[in-house]
Amino acid sequence: MKILLIGEYSNLHNSLKAGLEKLGHTVVIAGLNDGFKNFPVDILLKKRYQKGFFKKLKVLIYKLSKIDLYSLDIKRQIKNALPQLSGFDVVQFINESAFMCTPNIEAYIFNSIQKNNSKIYLLSCGTDYTSVNYAYNKNLKYSILTPFFNEKGKKSNYQSVLKYLKPEYKKLHDTVFKGIEGVIASDFDYHLPLQNHPKYLGMIANPINVDVLEFKALTNLNPIVIFHGINKNNYYKKGNDLFEIALKEIQKSHGDKVKVITTHNLPYNEYIKAYNDAHIILDQVYSYDQGYNALESMAKGKVVFTGLENECLLHYNLEKNSIAINATPNVNAIIKHLNALIENPDNITKIGHAAQRFVNKEHNYINSAKRYLEFWES
């Protein structure tokens, strides 16, 4: 089968590609390289007008005319690349707005690719109309919009999320859903909003390429190394502010027993290297399930503070905090969990082993690839 994967977040499509190729399929990834993370893609759409004079020019022209030079440039690149983006058996878009363009140009890109290929599918693994609308209406006890409701940070920090509720993005959503065979969720944060949707095919666990992530048993726990990787754009949405408060208390109370590593906006390969020697990873607070970075860390045997809510526990038949620590927007709870691990280091080793076994069983990239093929072929 010839498969085109449009867009890349968090290494998901690269891991899926590796699994599909192991199963004998031809796979091409097309899209942006996701900014500072710099994930590889086969057909690269370049992000111009992002800095310096050209960024100022783009902003000025948009203010005067509502014409977005960046979007027009991506449209031109898509037109030129269309022969390479045609003739596939299956195309999967990673998002309704995979190229960060204005909605009308995203719709143009979607329609162009749809006309030149067979089956089109959509993956829900990041913010989109359905998940943002669900969170905005407070259908979850907490979500990435909880800090917005609590007035943390500037309103502009949330525009990349709230934009999906604008009429033009709702129109784009309707266009995409009209043209797809179905939509697939990557975890419970996207599964819950899609339940009962007529085009929802189901959830497929994030594919993790366990063959390239070396498991390392958590020994030499003196000091206990805690890693906190911050993406400045998502500082409040990930709960990094809560983690930072908790870490200050932990450093006060435990001193030399702990070592804290904090990084900012690292490219993917540098990020992986930076947390290699860590025992505990602080990932995110407002999720119900483990995101991609958390799962890769777990595959390496780390204890990750991330999403592990009851819906997830029931689905995978897990005990509470058995494979990761369910991080909630409660600083005292985060401190309590960190204290418990520091005072009982054997639990760090135990959870690390359980995390690695869980990812190998439930998120193996080849097994996930098989499930995608079942969905696409059904």
Structure description:
This protein is of the alpha/beta class and 378 residues long. It is built from 16 helices and twelve strands. It has helices spanning 12-22, 52-65, 69-81, 103-115, 129-136, 146-149, 159-162, 167-179, 188-194, 240-254, 268-274, 292-299, 310-316, 331-343, 345-362, 365-377, and strands at residues 2-6, 26-31, 43-44, 90-93, 119-124, 182-185, 200-203, 224-230, 258-264, 280-282, 303-306, 325-326. The strands form two sheets. The protein has a seven-stranded parallel beta sheet with strand order 3-2-1-4-5-6-7, sandwiched between helices. The radius of gyration is 21 Å and the shape is globular. The two termini are 14 Å apart. The relative contact order is 0.12. The mean pLDDT is 94.
Low-confidence stretches: none
β content, as a range?
5-15%
Number of DSSP strand runs: 12
Please give the largest β-sheet.
Answer: 7 strands, parallel
Tally of individual helices: 16
Overall mean pLDDT stands at 94
Structural class call reads alpha/beta
Q: Which strand order do you get reading across the main beta sheet?
A: 3-2-1-4-5-6-7
Helix content: 40-55%
Nearest-angstrom radius of gyration? 21 Å
Give the N-to-C terminal Cα separation: 14 Å
Based on CA inertia axes, which overall geometry fits?
globular
